[in-house]
Amino acid sequence: MVESEPSRSSISVKAASLRASSTVYSIIEGDALVDVLESINYHIKIVPTADGGSICKNRSIYNTKGDAQITEEKIKEGKEKATGMFKAVEAYLQANPDAYN
């Protein structure tokens, strides 16, 4: 299990495919949504590179409540938090390769 900073956010996993190296999940409630977001959808795909490494492609879709607007600053903050979570998961998996084999 991977733990991160305590949060009141709930994550709903909509789909996951390890074979395709991609996943889609949504945050549907909690402080990550501030007061203007209904949900955030994350689309993550890991693509292998020729040198044996990989590239992580991440697409985030912010669904606002009504006509609410979200600032670029808030999007940047969210991206930084998502990057931190990704790095924590990456570090855990590198330290515990049996967790995914």
From TrEMBL:
InterPro entries with a match to the protein in the record:
Bet_v_I/MLP, Bet_v_I_allergen, Plant_def-hormone_signal, START-like_dom_sf
Keywords, in A-Z order: Pathogenesis-related protein, Plant defense
- Which residues, if any, are the signal sequence? none
**UniProt entry tagged with the keyword Transit peptide:** no
A Pfam family this chain is assigned to: Bet_v_1
User: What are the BP-aspect GO terms?
Assistant: defense response
| Bet v I/Major latex protein domain mapped to chain residues | 22-95
Q: What is this protein called?
A: Major allergen Pru ar 1
Q: Which domain of life is it from?
A: Eukaryota
Q: Which Gene3D superfamilies match?
A: 3.30.530.20
User: Which family does the similarity line name?
Assistant: Belongs to the BetVI family.
